[in-house]
Automatic annotation (TrEMBL):
Domain spans labelled Aminoacyl-transfer RNA synthetases class-II family profile: 1-134
Example GO BP: lysyl-tRNA aminoacylation
Listed GO MF terms: ATP binding; lysine-tRNA ligase activity; tRNA binding
Source superkingdom: Bacteria
Alphabetized InterPro entries for the sequence: Aa-tRNA-synt_II, aa-tRNA-synth_II, aa-tRNA-synth_II/BPL/LPL
Presence of the UniProt keyword ATP-binding in the record: yes
Organism phylogeny: Bacteria, Bacillati, Actinomycetota, Actinomycetes, Mycobacteriales
Keywords: ATP-binding, Ligase, Nucleotide-binding
Name under which the protein is recorded: Lysine--tRNA ligase
GO cellular component: cytosol
Keyword ATP-binding set for record: yes
Length: 136
């Protein structure tokens, strides 16, 4: 999954001036996302690309605590191997899931991404948090 992401980012992402919807991401790249109902090995997730960056993302949440635990354990192994982006095993989250979660989905699009789309500025020029703004 990690290799697919790296190849995607290197070869494809900045070529999508779109708007373009990308979907059917490999399960390994999205640990919190539900596996596709009819297509094996991919998720129910989409990203909207514009001007070479991800403007928005949407997906169906994984609500099965058994599968979520397996994915967190996979992520923990990746973290132990040095993957700084791997997720940690979140027992509180898993316990909450075990109480039952209805089917859930959502979409996320940040103000910084909208500003990038409208102005052509980079993420560092649009982010609202001073710790990540470039020094002058």
């Amino acid at each position: 999954g990690k290799l697919v992401e790296e190849i995607w980012e290197f070869l494809c992402e900045d070529q999508l001036w779109g708007p373009v919807f990308v979907y059917n991401y490999p399960v390994e790249t999205s640990p919190l996302v539900r596996q596709h109902r009819t297509e094996r090995g991919v998720t129910e997730k989409w990203d909207l690309y514009l001007r070479g960056f991800e403007l928005a993302t949407g997906y169906s949440e994984l609500v099965d605590p058994v599968i979520q635990r397996e994915r967190f354990e996979d992520q923990a192994r990746l973290a132990a191997g040095g993957d700084e982006e791997a997720m940690v095993l979140d027992e509180d989250f898993l316990q909450a899931m075990e109480q039952g979660m209805p089917p859930t989905a959502g979409t996320g699009m940040g103000l910084d991404r909208l500003l990038m789309a409208f102005t052509g500025l980079g993420i560092r020029e649009t982010v609202l948090f001073p710790l990540v703004k470039p020094e002058k």
